[in-house]
Amino acid sequence: MDGIEKITRQIIAEAEAECNAITAEAAAKCAEIKADFDKKADELYDATMQTGIAEIETDAKHIERNAHLNARKDILAAKQDMVDKAFMLAGKKLREIDEDKYIAWLAGIAADAAVNGDEEIILDEAEAAVADKLVAEANAVLTEKGKKAELKLGAPAKEIGAGFILRRGDVAVNCTVAEMLSMSRKEIASDVAAKLFG
Fold first, then answer.
1. Is residue 127 classed exposed, middle or buried when 0-12, 13-18 and 19+ CB atoms within 10 A define those classes?
2. Residue 70 CB neighbour total at 10 angstroms
3. Within 13 Å and on the Cβ side, how many CA atoms surround 52?
4. How far is CA 50 from CA 53, 58, 195, in A?
5. What's the pLDDT score for residue 30?
6. What is the pTM of this model?
7. pLDDT 10s digit of each residue in the chain, 198 long?
8. Using CA atoms, how far apart are residues 154 and 143, in angstroms rounded to an integer?
9. d(Cα 25, Cα 31) in Å, to the nearest integer?
10. Is the distance from CB of 168 to CB of 120 less than 8 angstroms?
């Protein structure tokens, strides 16, 4: 039996050795596969991170650009609002000047705008206090210029504000302060803005 036991032990030893060799080879192969997958996983992680960072940077730049554009729009709108208010205030201030200066200023405008010298001056109902003086002074300016001086007062109008409308038949010239400011706005708006924001 000694011989059988020896052979059995030898077979078992060879089997164990072979088993150990296969286990070692399998472990080495597993370590190699794991190392390869780890490397690929790291590369994929790095690539994904770089792509994500690039997308975040692009998004951040886009958001920043939009924020700058919106801020500029808001600033321009605020500046435009201030220029609008400056023109509105100018219209109010013109009506608040000394009455004699106001009448003289309007009379000069009426004399310059009159083509025939016999037009009607139409004022806002609120301007009734200056109506007669304005017509008289405008005619005096026309007389000084050697022109026909027969301007007359027309029926008052509602809500035309400061200034007047000069009318002859169907032809009317709008000489209201609001209209004059509107017409001169294109020419002087940049100067007003420069004074406000310069």
1. buried
2. 10
3. 6
4. 5, 12, 50
5. 72
6. 0.55
7. 577 777 777 777 776 777 777 777 877 787 788 787 778 877 877 888 888 888 888 888 888 888 888 878 877 777 777 767 776 776 677 667 788 888 999 899 999 889 888 899 998 888 888 889 999 999 999 999 999 989 998 888 888 888 888 999 889 888 888 887 777 777 766 766 676 666
8. 20
9. 10
10. yes
Q: Are 166 and 114 in contact (CB under 8 A)?
A: yes
In this structure, what token pair is assigned to residue 22? 């296969």
- C-alpha span between 171 and 62 (Å, rounded): 56
- Contacts of residue 135, Cβ cutoff 8 Å, sequence gap at least 6: 121, 151, 152, 153
Q: How far is CA 41 from CA 36, 38, 49, 62, 198, in A?
A: 8, 5, 12, 31, 60
Q: Give the tokens for residue 114.
A: 């009159």
